[in-house]
Amino acid sequence: MTEPATTPPPGCPAHAAAAPLHGPRFQTDPGQVYRELRAAHGPVAPVELAGGVPAWLVIGYRELQLMTSQPKLFGRDSARWNAWPTVPADWPLRPMMASVPSILYAEGAEHQRRSAAVTDALSAVDPYELKKKCEQIADTLIDEFAGRGEADLVAEYAHRVPLLVLCWMFGLDDSQAPVLIRGLLDMLDGGADAQSGAQRLLTVMLELVETKRERPGADVTTSLLQHPAALSDEEIMRDLRVLLIAGHQPTSYWIANALRLMLTDERFAASLSGGRRSIGQALTEALWEDTPTQIFAGRWATRDTRLGGQQIAAGDMLLLGLAGSNADPAVRQENGAAADGNHAHMSFSHGEHRCPFPAQEAAEVIAGTAIEVLLDRLPDLRLAVAEHALVWRPSAWVRALVALPVGFTPGIQSSSGGAL
Ligand code: HEM
Prior knowledge:
alpha+beta; Uridine Diphospho-n-acetylenolpyruvylglucosamine Reductase, domain 2; 6-stranded mixed sheet; 3-stranded antiparallel sheet; 16 helices; 11 strands; 10% strand; binds protoporphyrin IX containing FE
């Protein structure tokens, strides 16, 4: 095992007063951390990950655009990271950064091939069918707690809607979906079952690919199999895994963060009973103010270069400061707010590796429908705790509520729900 990277290489610019990218302030007020970083370092800040590992955090809107639109200079494959020799084998962030063969880390022509297949497969999902399925899943989940008059909307709703919708999009049948969901959740929990969860996830994916090769259906897996890119079963399995993880987590957090905004901000209060500010506005505002993926890893410099006034060495890691860029004063109004109706946030990133457009559209249908059905079924929904008692997960990487406890008048079963 190599030594922890506590001793920076001599003269390493990333260690000139690098700010730690962890700690309670990211949980309580990430906006303040970004303001301080910007004041101290400008648009590209030296930061330190757990274990003293150095990186650059790009929090300038323009610099993030520049970086993500130059894939030849800022590559996607983490294998070129110059810090790998000093990163311990059991470094907790290793699974997040390690290069595995998938759409995520592919570059150039190989990325175009995989990205075309994923984009076409997602585009083939009928938006009408998608919305109908979201409504049915939302209704069925609400049925489980509607009679109780109280619920935790994170665990019982926001976390589950996107997962069940994605299982349907992939063409998983009702018996496979729970195995896949358990595997994913065990893996994401990072506990003792994480490894076996990750393995079960891949096994279900592979079985799914084999099943769909024999019995094609109207689903994303079949579209990937039939795509002219001629992906192998292994490639499809890997990219389905990316789609599941990339789709589930941010969409869950997006639903919860937009709901929190609607339940705590009086500008949205009227729309709970069908009034002024719309669900769409809450969704957009949540992306500007509390974007689900706050920081994304990353890009790796292919040669020595400069960005935002900083000297970047070949192989340096640059993290996408999505939340930081959204808060860049250069793209905010004088009062610090994002302009109404402005969708030019960085929450889905930018450039050829950004979240694929049909994935963004699907996420919007899933999140929008989830909130719409909830407010329709439980019109007097209210927060069951004081706003300041809501707890965010202790992470610089995501903006995610631990729980969203609500109360409401106990309702009745839906007519459209039923078995998933
Ligand atoms: C149905 C839901 C979603 C699906 C299926 C999905 C899928 C994907 C995929 C396949 C990628 C990799 C693209 C590539 O490397 O070429 C990706 C990247 C990404 N997605 Fe999504 N996504 C979804 C929802 C979201 C949401 C709700 C957000 C945030 C609000 C988000 C933010 C991102 C970001 C920041 C990246 C990284 C882009 C980069 O490296 O520059 N995604 N997504």
